[in-house]
């Protein structure tokens, strides 16, 4: 069968590539065409558009790049019409994907499946109308989403969380701290890991404050997780300390060896928790004071990070908007690095959250659900 997939960012590329791998095990004649990244390209040859040309975050960025967004959408529509897939599979990325879903259902009458639901339980709940109208099947990755969609009379299939799979199967789990440091030309100081995000816009807005706060702890070395698709030269002007280094393609290894992590809100917060590294979650907002004032009216969840949402309590500190300062971040880092009971409680809460998510096998279960529904 022929599968057309759309992923608009790094995490979507990872999860879509795992789904493609599992589909190939079930369907020996599987053909893929997709918008995504290098990981998907390793599983299938027909890349239509790389996500690095699609990842615009926030209203202003989308507006500034409106022509490019529309061009990407037209390219995608033409590719689907030409490829004539048996199914279109969407991975998160709702602003783009729901428009494509409408087009596919209205003009091509091709089944539309969604793997990894848009976070409409947090904001833009009105999108449920589009999902019910244009999405034939939804495969969810967070256990509470089942009840949320049931409230709207829409059946979904919970397949488990792909981050559980990624962490369980991560490479170099036996690697020692000494070997990691030697391979990356690091010192023997303990590590503070910084994960400023996968998009250039969020990296440039988050990383300077992260580096400033981490600089208060000279007994630690600072290691920055480089995003796939973002060149080293982009990071260099942001690096204000000689005690910092950017490393690419080793985020899981870096987290495994870090004493603490500062993580930009997103899938990485969940991955950090599954690895077991104490963390603080940050997120920069435009017009931050106004945004934080309006937060209770715009966002339906009490928390922003997936760790806290899944656990239904504050497991990790969230520093959002104008609360994300050098001083507040430095103070929280002090807790993570030096308060042993605080660290221990966070790790215990991680274990409880891990039990809620369930066992590995999300991509396998999702692929089975896709394939069996089409045959």
Could you explain the architecture of this structure?
With 375 residues, this protein is α/β, with parallel strands linked by helices. It folds into two domains: 181 residues, Rossmann fold; 183 residues, Glycogen Phosphorylase B (Rossmann fold), CATH 3.40.50. Helices cover 50% and strands 17% of the residues. The strands form two sheets. Strands 3-2-1-4-5-6-7 form a seven-stranded parallel beta sheet, with helices on both faces. A six-stranded parallel beta sheet has the order 10-9-8-11-12-13, with helices on both faces. Helix 10 links the parallel strand 8 and strand 9. Helix 1 crosses helix 18, helix 5 packs parallel to helix 6 and helix 10 packs across helix 16. About 3% of the residues have low confidence.
Give the SSE map.
Blueprint: E1 2-7, H1 10-26, E2 31-36, H2 38-43, E3 46-50, H3 59-64, H4 66-83, E4 87-91, H5 94-108, E5 112-115, H6 128-134, E6 137-140, H7 145-151, E7 157-158, H8 162-168, H9 177-183, E8 191-195, H10 200-214, E9 221-226, H11 232-235, E10 244-248, H12 251-257, E11 258-264, H13 267-275, E12 279-283, H14 288-298, H15 306-311, E13 317-320, H16 326-338, H17 340-357, H18 362-374
Parallel strand pairs: 1-2, 1-4, 2-3, 4-5, 5-6, 6-7, 8-9, 8-11, 9-10, 11-12, 12-13
> Which value, in Å, is the CA radius of gyration?
21 Å
Q: What is the domain tally? A: 2
**Model regions low in confidence, pLDDT < 50 over at least 5 residues:** 286-295
CATH superfamily of the largest domain: Glycogen Phosphorylase B
DSSP strand (E) fraction?
Answer: 15-25%
Describe the global form. globular
> What is the helix tally?
18
Query: What is the CATH topology of the largest domain?
Result: Rossmann fold
First and last CA, distance: 9 Å
